[in-house]
């Protein structure tokens, strides 16, 4: 089986690349999907395709609705959803994706630093794992997908 992993959230760092590289290095049978991460394209897709809007509210709404087609479809197809909250910006879209995934019964891994623990406590409570680094996410995926845990072998009592 190939597991489908949806990578949602912050778009300003290379965390997605780190998880994908780690999964490849571990030989995991995974396929990754994500929202459009080109910020301007995501913001302007509605008016670029459907025509300009003088009111910023409608400009944003057109884009959000078209982006939702992609996001909902890929979230629904995902076996696991990873949501990253970054340091610099508040990712309201990531919070929405986490809530949507939780409501759909998707296994949820949240990725953020300690300073966001209080603000994200409800989202963390809905998650099955909360990680601080992309390497921890890869280790979780490795364990979930193939039962591999660094430092344990099949002869260890703890590995059974």
Give the topology, please.
Blueprint: E1 3-9, H1 15-25, E2 30-33, H2 39-50, H3 56-77, E3 80-84, H4 92-103, E4 108-111, H5 121-126, E5 129-131, H6 134-146
Parallel strand pairs: 1-2, 1-3, 3-4, 4-5
Helix pairs in contact: 1-6, 2-3
- Count every beta strand, where a strand is a DSSP E run of 2 or more residues: 5
Query: What is the class in the CATH system?
Result: Alpha Beta
CATH-scheme architecture: 3-Layer(aba) Sandwich
CATH topology type = Rossmann fold
Largest sheet: 5 strands, parallel
- Summed up, the domain count is 1
Low-confidence runs (pLDDT<50, min 5 residues)? none
Proportion of beta-strand residues: 5-15%
Distance between the termini: 22 Å
Helix content: 40-55%
What Rg, in angstroms, do the CA atoms define? 17 Å
Mean pLDDT over all positions: 93
Number of alpha- plus pi-helical segments: 6
Query: Which class best fits the helix and strand makeup?
Result: alpha/beta
Strand order of the largest sheet: 2-1-3-4-5
């Amino acid at each position: 089986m190939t597991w489908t992993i949806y990578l949602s959230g912050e778009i300003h760092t290379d965390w997605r690349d780190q998880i994908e590289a780690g999964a490849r290095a571990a030989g995991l049978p995974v396929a990754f999907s994500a929202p459009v991460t080109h910020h301007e394209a995501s913001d302007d897709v509605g008016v670029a395709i459907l025509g300009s809007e003088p009111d910023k509210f409608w400009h944003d709404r057109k884009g959000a609705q078209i982006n939702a087609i992609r996001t909902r479809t890929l979230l629904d197809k995902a076996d696991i959803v990873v949501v990253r909250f970054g340091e610099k910006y508040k990712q309201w879209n990531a919070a929405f994706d986490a809530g949507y995934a939780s409501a759909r019964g998707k296994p949820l891994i949240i990725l953020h630093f300690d300073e966001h623990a209080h603000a994200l406590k409800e989202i963390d409570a809905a998650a099955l794992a909360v990680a601080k680094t992309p390497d921890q996410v890869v280790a979780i995926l490795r364990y979930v997908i193939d039962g591999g845990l660094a430092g344990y072998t099949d002869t260890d009592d703890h590995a059974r």
